[in-house]
Amino acid sequence: MHKIAEAPPQAQNKRIIIAKIVVVALYGVGLIGLSLPEYRAFFLMLTPAQLLLTLVLLLGFHRGWSDAFPIFAAVAFWLGFGSELIGVHTGYIFGDYVYGPTLGPMLWEVPIIIGVNWFILVYLTGTVLQKVTDNDFYAALLGATAMIVIDYIMEPVAVALDMWYWKFEIIPPSNYFTWFGVAFLIHLIYRKGNFEKGNPLAAFILVAMILFFTFLNFTLEL
């Protein structure tokens, strides 16, 4: 395992404080901008950039830079992206849906950023819950359950903001079952990965994301 020299505690604490301020600004300004109809179109264009900046912040404070970590990141990306690819073109995984323009450039009718989103969500929930149990199977169950809750909060907002659309505007129950299944598999791989699973920003960003979508459920006309 490769060790990266850590900054002195005082300098590290300052970095964390600055990063948290950036997170608050990132999601706070985004929340306000998306809640105001006159500015919504502009902030919708920034959605992929928001996810990428979140990714950069997480990786900047990730502690377990072993050879296994980038392998896990790639697997999480492609399992998430691949499941969405099959879902969009067959309707057999999550249900009958298509992606809108909000999430940016697409590959085979699936936004490339969606693979990043899968990695971020698994990484956040996995890191926050990693000390709850030593059992990898139970930890994966908890992580996948947490992701179902997040998806449930996120779905109405995503549809309202043209991220994706469901056929007949109905979210099928299969979406949550298969979301759980894919999330469980990636979480299990995360648990088995031979790298340190610590990040001082993970819990803060996870809470920021949940609050972001929760408040949008009330501020948007759903």
TrEMBL record:
Domain of life: Bacteria
Transmembrane segments: 16-36, 42-61, 68-94, 106-125, 137-154, 174-190, 202-220
Entry keyword annotation includes ATP-binding: no
InterPro entries in the record: CruF-like
Keyword Transmembrane: yes
Alphabetical UniProt keywords: Membrane, Transmembrane, Transmembrane helix
The protein's name: Putative membrane protein
